[in-house]
Amino acid sequence: MKKIRRKALPFSLAAVLAVTALGGCSGKGSSPGESSGTSGGQAMGRYLEEEVPLPEGMEAALDITQLQDGKMRVLGCNMEMAYKVWDSSDGGATWEEKGEFTGNGDGEDIYLMDASLSPSGEAFIVGYKGEKQSCFYMTDQVQFQEVNLELGELDRDFQTAGSVVAENTGAVDVELETESGSEGADAGSKAGAESEGADTEPEEGEEASFGESDMDMANGFSGIAYAPDGTLFGNDYNSKLYKIHPSTGELEEFLSDVSGFGIAGDMVVASVGGNTALYDMATGEPAPQDQALLDAVKQAGGVEIYTTSGKQILFTDGIEDNCFYYCTREGIFRHISGGSVNEQIVDGNLNSLGSPDIGLAAMAALEDGKFLVLANQTGGIGSSKLLKYSWSEDTPSKPSKELKLYSLRDNTDIRQAISLFQKENADYYINFQTGISGEDGTTVSDALKTLNADIMAGKGPDILVLDGLPIASYMEKGLLADLSDVLDELKAGDGCFENIAETYRSESGLYGIPSRFSIPAIAGNEELVKTAADIGAFADKVEELRKEDKDVEAIVNTASPELTAEKFYQSYSPALLNGDGTLNQENVKEFYTQLKRISGTGKYPKEVEESMVYTINTTGTSIWGGVDMDSMNVLGGSLKAASGVLSSVSGFNQMLAVNNKLNQGYALWNLAGQKVYCPQTIFGVSSKSAMAEDAKKFVSYVFRTEAQKLDQGGGFPINRKAFDAATIDMKDMPEMSICHSNQETGEMVELTVSWPKKADFDSLREKIESLDTPTLMDDVIKEAVIEQAVKYMKDECSVEDAVAALVQKVNLYLAE
Q1: Which residue has better confidence, 485 or 376?
Q2: How far apart are CA 488 and CA 486, in angstroms?
Q3: For the ranges 1-10, 126-135, 158-167, 315-324, which has the lowest average pLDDT?
Q4: Which of 747, 524, 490 minimizes the C-alpha distance to 634?
Q5: Which contacts of 804-809 are long-range, i.e. CB under 8 A and separated by 24 or more positions?
Q6: pLDDT of amino acid 611
Q7: Which of 8-17, 232-241, 313-322, 553-562 shows the highest mean pLDDT?
Q8: Stated pTM of the model
Q9: Which of 2, 298, 347, 520 is the most exposed, fewest CB within 10 Å of its CB?
Q10: Edge-to-edge, what's the strand order for the sheet holding 38-39?
């Protein structure tokens, strides 16, 4: 069995990318910079995107470049992890295999992590034989030889930093097992796989950390790149940047204290000591600092590789002298060295470049004015795609129709849908606006006041994402358009979970449709699971189990009052309001009382609670709210039961694997006695929009299978066909092996995650179809409820005072 190991850190150091446009769009007939003319007074000419097929059988690409003779060369692998080189002389229409990587011929398995192709056709390749990094040089005739490099020992500071992270997060090794080969890793940083020891983001449903082998690492390269003149650069784990002579293995130190770099024309862009600057490629001395370029690098997120899906910014040499191009999520830009303007020639907001599931790997500017971008679609092996951007004289330079879309908070599922929709509908531009950025202190109440004022003044959005908004109030005031026709179309086509899709129907129509949903669930101790429908009985059982086991860290996850309130709110919130929308004070008191009892059963060190509160404040509670996350702690012995929401097939699979190993079950977590679900990414259309039909066109697209099947972690899809496609029988799906440290014994516990049986998915569908009550979605009320719950759990007030304060705040809000 081949095992594909994955390792990850818990949080990315660059979770937010800059999204400020750097310049205006312009273009000419076959290359950017001049107008193509007008049609009916409208400026014409724009780059359009198309996907170019990669070589047949290629599942993941490491690099692509244009050779000096005009051909394209790509290096990548197939599902059997065979690495090959292909050339194309017709822009990717057809591919010719040129050779296969065979390592050094000793028969030992080598798994490639990174590669850089030179315009001359050469390549430098970084891979692993077991835990040791190995480097290889490929000639322009596709002949391979191993290169022995003397990088020196790994600094202790680097290893110590890794040890600290591992101690604070717990050790989890994740391995994927397939049918051939032996232990290794998949296609690498450019192809969506993790480099040993590199900072990475955790995948959906994974816990994250360094494994034990990371604590005794050898030095190696974290990034490599060829310059246009054939000079090869490599950045090692000791933060040194070298010029590498690949045929001989000679190293020439170029810069030190480098955390990332890129090649922009004849300059090296490097982050040195935390400051990004330009350096002369020949001497390593500081070059004249091109502020426009440095601003662009900063806005893109820097030259460091933060995620396993790709880079923040790509560079490629220009066709013209003294010119080069760069690519970010904002699009493709042209820059004249020393100039003051970054000219945007491809707008990433109108194609896949702006999509949150796309990672940038490599780019090339072709002689005919076209551009190629090698990208990785997040989700693992088989994710590479090649995007071509060609000039279209007959397309308006700017979309003729603009729709304003409002969401209280940013949302990757929305951005994904926008990207797909605009790619298919070149005449539309979706102007995505958010009410809360997290940067200016704006509260939910502040954002709602601004939104309501804009709506009443006729300046509001065409499309609203209703998550966190007062949906019932908007329905009563007639601010939302009827979407019955949108749902009828979905029912007649792909089908849907109608019990959830009909959530916001009244006698007069349907005024909001959830595109996704999650399910409060409880898994673990059988006796506790049986009390899932009564919060009082649940608290009784939690206290009873605590008396029986005084050593376990907690019965359920109560690491902080904030987390506890968030988790239990999802399940109990429908009981907090009366039928007329006013607070049910008796149920609020019951909720607070039982929360405090449950919270008091945890035995967490103070530093754990402080760390949890910091994490919640900086990243939100959603990453801690999943049953799958808690299940690993049940496996490790620190919890008796996992609680929270099920929101993805991968999370369901992991929870089920723990249940099977421990011979336990799961149930819907219905603490208020109702079968609760959490509607997510709920779409509505403003009744005041002058473009209501166009808005409905976009909303209809959101519910199509192609948009629903891409999982960004926002919940199960409402589209039945997309859900069924994600839960089909996949007997050949590789198993995933997860190792977790047992809390009591310190021993490593191994978990094998296999694809669930058909009966498991059938049972999940039945549970979904039985759901009948949505969680309370109004964020103003939610924040007020949780605020007072936390104060009471911290003994800052009595339960009576907490209820009174909540009533006062909510009544004032409802009166507004």
Answers
A1: 485
A2: 5
A3: 1-10
A4: 524
A5: 806/583, 806/588, 807/583, 807/585, 807/588, 809/784
A6: 65
A7: 232-241
A8: 0.74
A9: 298
A10: 38-39, 42-52, 384-396, 371-377, 358-365
Distance CA 361, CA 472 (A): 45
Residue with token string 């009443």: 456
Continuous segment of H or E residues that includes residue 87: strand 83-88
- DSSP letters, 664-729, are -EEEE--TTSS-EEEEEEEEEEBTT-TTHHHHHHHHHHHTSHHHHSS--SS-EESBHHHHHHHTS-
The whole-angstrom separation of Cα 665 and Cα 191 is 37
Helix (H, G, I), strand (E, B) or coil at 426: coil
Q: How many CB atoms lie under 10 A from the CB of residue 42?
A: 11
Helix (H, G, I), strand (E, B) or coil at 397: coil
Q: What is the pLDDT of residues 282-332, one digit of tens each?
A: 999 999 999 999 999 999 989 876 544 678 999 998 777 788 999 999 999
What are the pLDDT digits (tens) for 54-83?
A: 998 888 889 999 999 999 999 998 877 789
Q: Taking Cα atoms as reference points, which of 530, 562, 529, 556 lies closest to residue 543? A: 556
Kindly list the distances between the CA atom of residue 607 and the CA atoms of 71, 164, 270, 315, 555, in Å, as whole numbers in the listed order: 58, 15, 36, 43, 19
Angle between the 649-662 and 627-636 helix axes, to the nearest 10 degrees? 20
Q: In this predicted structure, what is the pLDDT of residue 334?
A: 94
Write out 549-570 in H/E/C secondary structure.
CCCCCCCCCCCCHHHHHHHHHH
Residues 148 and 132: beta-carbon distance below 8 Å: no
* Residue that wins the pLDDT comparison between 615 and 780: 780
Amino acid 481: pLDDT: 97
Type of residue found at 150 = E
Tokens describing residue 368: 């005919």
The single residue listed with the structure tokens 């390269």 is 221
